[in-house]
Fold this protein.
Amino acid sequence: MRPEPVEGSTADLHKLSPHQRESGFEDLHYSFVPCASLPGQLGRSGVITTPHGKIRTPAFVAVGTKASVKAVLPESMVALGAQALLANAYHLYLQPGADVIEAAGGLGPFMNWPGPTFTDSGGFQVMSLGVGFKKMLAMNTDGLEDDDVIADGKTRLAQIDEDGVTFRSHLDGSQHRFTPEISMQIQHQLGADIIFAFDECTTLMNTRHYQERSVARTQQWAARCLAEHQRLTREGTPSHFQALFAVVQGAQYEDLRRQATRDLESLVIDGCGFDGYGIGGALEKENLGTIVRWVCEELPEDKTRHLLGISEPDDIFTAIENGVDTFDCVSPSRVARNAAVYTSRGRFNVNTATSRRNFAPIDEDCDCYTCTHYTQAYLHHLFKAREMLAPMLCTIHNERFVVRLVDNIRTVIDAGTFSDFKIDFLGRYYGSSARSPRSGEADPDRAGTEPRPCR
Ligand SMILES: [Zn+2]
């Protein structure tokens, strides 16, 4: 069931870091090798090697927040070409508990997913559930001089201090505490191939002064995560090597983003640094490419760059051409549950009247299981009848659509025809009468409560 190995470049895919050699994971390693690059831009293709298989980049990482891509069998995710899945440490810590997943042999065996896995640190969820990201925050910040931006009548559910975060579960109100060390211990129990350092995710409404303090705190937490990760790798009994990615914050400020990137990149303990870097923060759609570029310009070419959360097809092009290798995206499954489907000519809702007697597939150009077996009329009926098969079939289509889009982008990067492909794809996708993309839509998978346009 393991996804087919992919052909990489002729470069050495088996080069081990000192950390990997010392850890005794010679056969179960992590590496990233860049291949082709976009002329004059930061975008590139490459190959990540993990203990559970290779990931050809750029790659879409499907989101299975609670160890499940909602409504889709893991076998279906393999069949539609998904290369890797990302789950969330916060959600799995609360339910079923990291110890349960550890006892099951780790995230992959627990959910019957044979390929590479990622876990997000839970930092965003801990803080967004506590600080609020709209529901809890005061929305009118005119004249704001401090960072007490909690809305009237709301109670802060998370308290951040220099050592970590104390928060209450969104499930039952029970109190918990995450520190960088605890996040690493949880992510080691979960056992994903790629894990993320515990960071503080601020909002665009925080003051510049707060952003500066927060970036400094995330840097300190990153150092503690790296030290604890190395201790756990050295002293524990892991079944395979786990790669640790730092997370770059700094909101919309160029100097903070660049300095944060340089500081994290230069962070080395016992001769070992981070295996890759995540780009986090609440990014506005119009600033996405610029912020990604600032970060990627500061990073060495041989380190993987992951964008934490992305939304629509045009954002995918923007992120990739500015240097992103992998990104996770909850939109394909989220919108599918509301009957929204992607097609080569834009996005539409299959539960509207126009599909009621349409006996064509969602997209004539799509090769997915849904489009090769079912009509819009049938899907329309399933949604109207509230049948569980409706979101299942639409999620399969949407996940395949994004997988195939990114596969095609990788192909045209290698072939040197990226610009032509981008113009053609976006022209057809947004040039039709289908709805335009929206950013900041509700994202229940992410925080359980609130939007997350980009982490
Ligand atoms: Zn399809």
Notes: Residues 169 and 302 are 38 Å apart (CA to CA). Residues 362-363, 366, 368, 370-371, 397, 400 surround zinc ion (CB under 6 Å). The mean pLDDT is 86.
